[in-house]
Amino acid sequence: MKLEGIHRGRNRFCFFIKVFFVSLILCISTEFEVKSQVNTLGEIEDTSFHYDEINVLVIIEGYGNFFSDVIYTDHDLLFINIEDLFKTIKIPCIVGQKGDSIGGFIDNESHAYNINYNSKQIIVGGKTIHAKRGLIKESGSVFMESSLFVEVFGITLTFNYRSLTVILKSNFELPVIKEARLEKQRNNLAKLKGEFKADTNLHRDYHLFKAGNFDWTGVSTQIWKGLTENHLTIGAGAELLFGEATASINYDSQLKLDNRELHYLWHWVDNDNPVIKQAQVGTIQLQTISLINTQTIGVNFKNSPTTVRKAKGYYPIHDYTEPNWTVELYLNDVLMDFTRADAAGLYDFKVPIVYGTTTLKLKFYGPMGEERTEERTLFFPFTIMPVKEFEYNLSAGILQDSLSSRFGQAGVNYGVTRFLTAGAGVEYLSSITTGAFIPYAKVTIHPFSRLLVNGEYDHGVETKGVLNYYFLKDAFLEIDYAKYFPGQLAIPYRSLEERKAKLSLPWKIKKIGGSVKLDYSQLVYKVFNYNQANIALSLYFQRFNVSSSTQISWADKQTPYSTSDLSLMYRMKYGYNIRLSGQYNVNSEAWNSFKTEFEKRISKAYISVSYERNILYRGNSVNLNFRYELPFARTNFSGSYNTGIVSTSEGAQGSLQFGSGNKYINASNNLSVGKGGIALYPFLDLNNNGIFDPGEPMVKITSVRVMGSNVIFREKDSIVRIPELNGFIKYIVEFSDEDLPNIAWRYKKKVYSVLVDPDQFKRVDIPIIIVGEMRGMAYTNKDSTLKGTGRILVKIYKKNTDKIVAEALSESDGYIDYMGLEPGDYVVRVDSTQLINLNSSVEPLQREFTIKAIEDGDIVEGIDFVLNPNEK
Predict the structure, then answer these.
(1) What is the phi/psi pair of residue 100, to 5°?
(2) Does domain 772-869 have CATH number 2.60.40.10?
(3) Are 149 and 157 in contact (CB under 8 A)?
(4) In angstroms, what CA-CA distances link 851 with 95, 691, 749?
(5) What percent of the chain has pLDDT over 70?
């Protein structure tokens, strides 16, 4: 912050003038006598040299850059201010009372160092280095020759005279880089947990009714000389009775419309309520013991929040879909990750383990842009609770089956210890004639992040357990076992026992990577056992992706039936891909089919052409797929020819979002019902009260950082819109002063935590304040002659307080500058400790000034100080 304050208001023209005339300055600079010293890098003869202070840009790889004053001599030696550098890169640095010694440690406390200017010795890690020529003192500060930093500290400083830059590298992780890395990790984890500390926290806004979003999807399929089928889905979302209300209806021209095609849900959330945090009424989704294949209309209450509270460890998911399809992973309705299936359709996720009951949802998107009508809702097999935390879940409803079955469920979970969570409850389903009530108990053991064990007992239905274990780096083993009670009807058509095992072994050797996945399951019946096994191999090298999947199934001693799917994909330049695939029947030792597909991707479009030869049925097919993304709709067209039958299909989807201000309607090619948005109103806060008052102008900004979002900037107004955010979730909105169009403007708050209201835009006013600049000079009075003096520290205080607002260092010519003072009254003084080290007094002792609220920023000049050396 100190360095930023020194240079932010710096006149760029003056800086380049310095660069141009640096040679001239070196030639006419004052001659100083420096006693010759010897460093361990080579003997240098006793001689005198000329030097001058110059301003350079220090660039740290992996961090950033900052300006620093250094000393450059006519022997091409560069001297760095040790205290200034170490404090900037956050290496511990303690300066002696008279400024003649500096001590601390490098990397860890066992690697201590001490620099003594008087004895010209550097002691580091028990090693003594003589630096007779490597240390000089100027303006009370010790400077060290740049080449010494390598031997002493493992820090390499490469100086470029032409550009006045210094590249800094180190053979250890600098504290400033480590701190930034850890802070980023903490921030990302805090964002995931919803615990990120922001300047401003904005909570839910509740309304009786507020119109929201509208979705639409249409698909028409024609079989030439045959049937035409049309499918239409429309959905709407709004706020109703302080909660989110969504409804959708599906229409298919070939099916009779009934109430099962209508979906509606009212969802109320208050994460701060200690008793009920969520309530749902309508078409609810349930994690049940009984097998339920239809919708449930009912109510649900629970005290688990919508925030994702991360625990330790991961749970793997790997499965198959269509090749090249995109799969999105939602955790408790929060988008956590997305991936793309490989050439064989295999996809993988590492799902973070979170506290509380967890619902997983997978959405599938094809390369044509179509969205799968199905959403796979999985319920996490483990429930982990923090210690002494209690969670409950109550549900009741009626199934839309032929019996209108009544359903009810009550369950609790409790964190017994750090690694043990226990749960219990009861489920009721009226259509189970052998026993409508099912009491259950379960336990989850999580001794360390790589191991999870879960056991569950459902009375009269099943006993099951699952073990997940990560070993090596990313290798994974899962063992699953379930035993069903004979005659139970809650889960019909089940075997007596189910035994499953999964093994995943990813690997990488230099530029070649891949994975081996083994799945085995056995179903135990009364008279036979049915076995299934799958072996999936995947390999990638540069632009090649090769994969195979072999399925084997057999019953007891019968001959196994086996097929293998092989695929090879090559990614060419300019978005061209080619994929070859085929299926081989191991039993008949013959190929079932071959397929060749060619695709081309551009920014908003996708086209693919494929040919398939089905040897088994002696058929040929040709397919053409085309997708184009408009700003307001995602469109697609496909056509196919298969053994004399021609079919075509056209589709489109999109959404409308209302209420972002200025009569603007956001049209999107994504579905938006259930999602919300943020409308930012940046304004110039002329009276500095943080309120958007009449007459205060809006400010057009061009940069906002929001995790996982698309930001819309419009030329027609200054409102910044962030659409398609998950409702009831906190988003971190961050701003940077460097992005503002005026150097005299600053954001009053830079980090906002915004809880998104579903199906509406949430208005957030962003005050921008005006700051001023202080300028002056620091002189040294020597023999009644005033000379500009560098590296004089001045401190700025709020008037009538001891609160330090900012600090500034004078530059080599004595120039003092600080930009970033809010309107108000201030006092500035020279640092008293430095005056003692320099054995000097100062006139005047302090200066007072006022920064006024002027739109382009106030500038106060004449803040001058004169240092008078005391007589020895």
Answers:
(1) -95, -5
(2) yes
(3) yes
(4) 34, 21, 20
(5) 86
Give me the sheet containing 720-726, strands edge to edge. 712-713, 720-726, 675-684, 761-770, 745-747
Contact predicate 244/278, CB 8 Å: no
CB contact set of 76 (below 8 Å; sequence gap of 6+)? none
The residue whose two tokens read 């409508």 is 436
Q: How far apart are CA 597 and CA 615, in angstroms?
A: 17
Contacts of residue 716, defined as CB under 8 A and 6 or more positions apart, other chains included, come to 662
Q: Give dist(CA 548, CA 556) in Å, integer.
A: 26
Q: Which two tokens mark 788?
A: 């500009």
| pLDDT at 378 (0 to 100) | 56
Distances (CA, A) of 204 to 335, 339, 676, 749, 761: 20, 32, 12, 19, 12
Q: Which of 364, 327, 324, 329 is nearest to 342 (CA)?
A: 324
Please, are residues 213 and 655 in contact by the beta-carbon 8 Å criterion? yes
Contact 157, 146 (CB under 8 A): yes
Determine the distance from the C-alpha atom of residue 627 to the mean position of all C-alpha atoms in its chain, rounded to a whole number: 29
Compute how many other C-beta atoms are within 10 angstroms of the C-beta atom of residue 433.
Answer: 7
Among candidates 805, 803, 807, which has minimal Cα distance to 795? 807
Contacts of residue 472, Cβ cutoff 8 Å, sequence gap at least 6? none
- b/e map of 653-676 (b: 16 or more CB within 10 Å)? bbbbbbbbeeebebebbbbbbbbb
Token pair recorded at residue 562: 């086996």
Q: Give CB contacts under 8 A, 24+ apart, made by 577-580.
A: 577/601, 579/323, 579/324, 579/343
Residue 767 is which amino acid? P
Strand, coil or helix: 836: helix
Residue 526 CA from chain centroid, whole number: 52
**What is the C-alpha to C-alpha distance for residues 440 and 311, in angstroms, rounded to an integer?**
25
Q: What is the C-alpha to C-alpha distance for residues 593 and 85, in angstroms, rounded to an integer?
A: 68
Tell me how far apart the alpha carbons of residues 663 and 592 are, in angstroms, rounded to a whole number.
Answer: 58
Residue 549, Cα to own-chain centre: how many angstroms?
A: 34
Residues 6+ apart with CB under 8 A from 751: 196, 197, 198, 199, 200, 732, 733, 734, 735
Tell me if residue 477 falls in helix, strand or coil. strand
Q: Domain segments of the chain: what residues?
A: 2-181, 772-869
Which residue's structure tokens are 């009912």? 298
Nearest to 238 by CA among 630, 673, 811: 673
pLDDT for 679? 94
- Give dist(CA 360, CA 101) in Å, integer: 60
3-class SS of residue 490: coil
What is the structure's pLDDT at 304? 86
Tell me the CA end-to-end span of the chain in Å, nearest whole number: 36
Helix 175-193 to helix 82-89 angle (10° resolution) is: 20
**CA–CA dist 643, 22 (Å, integer):** 81
Low-confidence spans in the chain with pLDDT less than 70: 1-49, 62, 97, 181-197, 308-315, 318, 320, 323-324, 331-336, 342-345, 353-360, 365-381, 708, 872
Residue 192: enclosing H or E segment and its boundaries? helix 175-193
Q: Whole-angstrom Cα distance, residue 374 to residue 759?
A: 22
Burial label, 579 (beta-carbon count in 10 A; 0-12, 13-18, 19+): buried
Domain range 2-181, its CATH number among 3.40.50.720, 3.90.800.10, 3.30.457.10, 2.60.120.620: 3.30.457.10
Query: For position 182, what pLDDT does the model report?
Result: 65
Q: Are 216 and 655 in contact (CB under 8 A)?
A: yes
* Strand pairing report for 165-170 and 49-60: parallel
Residue identified by tokens 């290798």 is: 475
Go through the chain and tell me how many residues it has: 872
Q: How many CB atoms lie within 10 A of CB 2?
A: 16
List of residues 6+ apart from 57 with CB closer than 8 A: 65, 66, 67, 163, 164, 165, 166
- CA 752, distance to chain mean position in Å, is 16
